[in-house]
Amino acid sequence: MNTTAYAYNAWYPLAWSRDIARTLVTRRVLEEDLVVFRNEDGTVAALEDACPHRLAPLSLGTLRGDAVECGYHGLTFDCSGQCVHAPGMARPPASFQVRSYPTAESMGMVWVWMGKPALADRSQVFHLREYDDPGYSVVEGDALDVQANYLNLADNLCDPTHVVFVHKTTLASASGQETRVEHERQGNKVVTWRWVLDGPLIPVFEGLKNFGGNVDRWHYYHYHAPSVAVIDFGSAKTGTGAPEGKRDDCIQMYACHFITPVDQRSCVQHWLVLKNSPSDPAIDARLRANLRLAFDEDKRVLEAIQRNEDKPRQWRRIPLGIDGSSIKMRRIVQEMAATDE
Ligand code: FES
Ligand SMILES: [Fe+2]
Q1: Which atom of ligand 1 sits closest to the CA of residue 74?
Q2: How confident is the model at residue 157 (pLDDT cuts 50, 70, 90)?
Q3: Can you say whether residue 207 is alpha, beta or left, with left for phi > 0 and alpha for psi between -120 and 50 degrees?
Q4: Ligand 2 mean position to 251 CA, how many Å?
């Protein structure tokens, strides 16, 4: 099995904010098990899910105020990981501790810092400006368990060329198979883009706007290493100047993918979409269903690739020009992982 080094000093998506309340839940990130809960002041606590006495998972215990009481012998740890109560002891020693992880919330997600706590900077948590723009509405999706290495999913999210083959009924139109793909590294981000000029509207855009004919369509895949992808995609009436930046009358969406690497062969894909049209229960439900269908199409391919990768044999792969952006993305993750040490 191929293994990839993890970049620890980074903010990772942990859970939807809506799923974290005053109960103990578990999440697995970079092969570490966490117990997660919301404190009384609304902030989120994440602790290592193993009691340092005999390693009983703290998630089997009880939340008392902002502290977790171990369900085995009652050692109790506050949200900073410090033991604040030990049955039979007047005062537990300061060395009784469990690891705690910095958290933050942004875009309806809880984010967790898996590296050195002193390096956690909440101003660096991912946030897209349009999320707060009243001209946009949010369609919050779900969380797909993908049985594949998260960088294989990242490859997919740096790659507009698979769309016409994998997403025939959702994100693709008949045109666009041969149009040129460009990419560029910008700091710890890779942007990959392609334009399809003078083609039909893609199926998921149908009903959102009537352009009365063909459109110019763009896809800009922004991959923020290690685990955030934002796909800026949209359409405007052909010949109205969209490629030059004139997009006053267009369908504009941002598909945001927040990937939690679970271990070497599984990850969780949280997704939401921002669109430049108001919320509408019927349209939003249809969009959510269509996008879920599309992301399931990716999941099916990626899980099958993972099963091949897991076979005990040496594969020879053919590199293609279209792999340039995912090669750069993986290099960035490697660089981030190397600087963790
Ligand atoms: S295992 Fe937690 S108190 Fe004993
Ligand atoms: Fe896809």
Answers
A1: 3
A2: very high
A3: left
A4: 19
Domain annotation covers residue 215:
yes
Same domain (yes/no): 76, 141: no
Domain hosting 45: range is 15-123
Residues lining ligand 2 (ion), CB within 5 A? Answer: 298
Q: How far is CA 311 from CA 122, 262, 306, in A?
A: 41, 20, 9
pTM of the model: 0.95
For residues 139 and 112, membership in a common domain is answered with no
Identify whether 93 is preceded by a cis peptide bond (ω within 30 of 0). Answer: no
User: At which of 123, 157, 180 does a domain end?
Assistant: 123
Ligand positioned closest to the Cα atom of 54: 1
Joined together, the tokens standing for residue 339 give 């600087």
Q: How many residues does the chain have?
A: 341
% of the chain surpassing 70 pLDDT: 97
For residue 272, what pLDDT band results from cuts at 50, 70 and 90? very high
